[in-house]
Specification:
The protein is mostly helical. The chain contains three helices and no strands. It is about 80% helix and about 0% strand.
């Protein structure tokens, strides 16, 4: 996410709800792209896939 998206999602800005909705929509599109990228990495570069998996799944 961009820094602006983070602020909008956390409601740290006084912008209209429409801006938050737009940020949410952009983030959903990025998640879809990330899913596709993860599948490619899993098949073609397992080491990078594991790094990605660890970064996302480990808390």
């Amino acid at each position: 996410m961009t820094e602006t998206d983070r602020k909008r999602i956390k409601r740290e800005s006084d912008e209209p709800a429409e801006k938050r909705y737009q940020a949410t929509s952009r983030i959903r599109k990025r998640i879809t792209a990330l899913e596709q990228d993860a599948n490619i990495l899993k098949e073609h570069h397992p080491d990078l896939y594991r790094e990605l998996q660890k970064a996302i799944c480990d808390e």
